[in-house]
Design a protein that fits this description.
The chain has 334 residues and is of the alpha/beta class. The chain folds into 2 domains: 4-200, Rossmann fold; 224-327, Bacterial toxin RNase RnlA/LsoA, N repeated domain (Double Stranded RNA Binding Domain). It is built from 8 helices and 17 strands. It has helices spanning 15-27, 63-71, 73-77, 113-118, 141-153, 171-184, 242-255, 313-327; strands spanning 4-9, 32-37, 49-54, 56-57, 60-61, 80-85, 95-96, 104-105, 126-129, 133-135, 165-167, 224-227, 232-239, 259-265, 269-278, 281-290, 298-305.
């Protein structure tokens, strides 16, 4: 007997809704999968598995999503559950440093960590942070302000500048998530024809009505270097897994007199503070290692210093040493 599934979601501008129906199609037309907004769900009892989807608000799933999980917590704890989010940035090595806050991980699956910590008895079979879509002319006032504020805080870039529609969703993440559900919950083989269903998301809507050359979606760079008055930032990737990347980062710290303090760990990324005094001034290098599902066999790395250029020179040199160690023996992936 086939399992009965529910994709329950919250949406504000319909992106999460589009992804929910896309997932239903990827799971298979012959599968019993109901797609319902939370407003249409009074019980999760009839279902064998529940996929919960949400947009992101203030670095978390929406309040209605959190309330849905809280209201159904006991029943969900006894079922197979998956979480997915549509969100802005998809780079899970991202760190946000905002006034009055400690620097912290953002983007993608990082936004699900709070819910998973709050409800530990729910053991998700799969989680996904896909990215999403912003249609700037139709954002409400709060969201318009939030996009503006994040753009001001972004020391690296604001890729939505000049766009009326900005997309960050990585299609492969949706497809890999669906195949995880197929394999781990439904006992089915992964689909190999996923790309033919991308029309659920793809659109001929322009990025900007007055600038035909603009692109809605530009894949995130795996390799990047930025040196400004506000930040020293590097991004790269190596052949290997998260364990290897973390081991090499620890070797680098030990070899260079750096006090390495782990700040946050998940199954897909680790965030460190690398602390050291340079010319008598304590500086923290923010280091993240991660694995992305769409780039199997590789580990993603980022290093950041927000100190002023005149005091961070030693930190820049240590970051270069870290990269030399990480990239050695042909590990660097271009």
């Amino acid at each position: 007997m086939s399992k009965k599934g529910l994709i329950a979601y919250d949406t504000i501008y319909s992106s999460t809704n589009e992804v929910a129906y896309w997932l239903k199609a990827l799971l298979g037309e012959d599968q019993h999968v109901e797609v319902k907004h939370f407003d249409q769900v009074i019980s999760v009892a009839p279902y064998d598995y529940v996929i919960i989807g949400s947009y992101t608000r203030w670095e978390k799933p929406s309040k209605r999503t959190q309330r849905f999980i809280a209201d159904n917590y006991r029943e969900l704890a006894g079922k197979q559950v998956c979480y997915f989010l549509t969100c802005g940035d998809n780079d899970e090595t991202m760190i946000l440093k905002a006034p009055g806050q400690q620097a912290h991980l953002i983007a993608g699956r990082n936004y699900l960590m709070g819910v998973m910590e709050q409800y530990p008895e729910i053991k998700p079979v799969a989680i996904g942070g896909f990215g999403g879509r912003e249609c700037m002319p139709h954002l409400n006032r709060i969201d318009t302000f939030q996009v503006w504020m994040v753009g001001k805080l972004a020391k690296e870039s604001a890729p939505w500048d000049g766009l009326e529609i900005w997309e960050s969703l990585v299609p492969e993440r949706v497809e890999i998530f669906a195949n995880e559900v197929r394999e781990k919950i439904l006992g089915l083989p992964p689909r190999t024809d996923c790309e033919k269903l991308r029309w659920f998301w793809n659109s001929v809507q322009p990025a900007n009505r007055t600038a035909a050359g603009k692109q809605k979606y530009t894949p995130k760079k795996y390799e990047e270097r930025l040196n400004t008055k506000k930040i020293y930032f590097t991004r790269s990737r190596i052949r290997g897994d998260l364990g290897l990347a973390c081991s090499l980062i620890k070797d680098w710290a030990a070899q260079n007199g750096i006090d390495l303090q782990e700040q946050k760990r998940s199954f897909f990324n680790v965030y460190y503070h690398a602390n050291k005094q340079y010319n008598g001034k304590p500086i923290t290098i923010h280091v993240v290692a991660a694995e992305f599902v769409e780039d199997p066999g590789n580990a993603q790395l980022s290093f950041r210093s927000w100190d002023k250029p005149e005091v961070r020179k030693g930190a820049e040199e240590d970051i270069t040493k870290a990269e030399q160690l990480l990239w050695a023996n042909g590990r660097k992936v271009g």
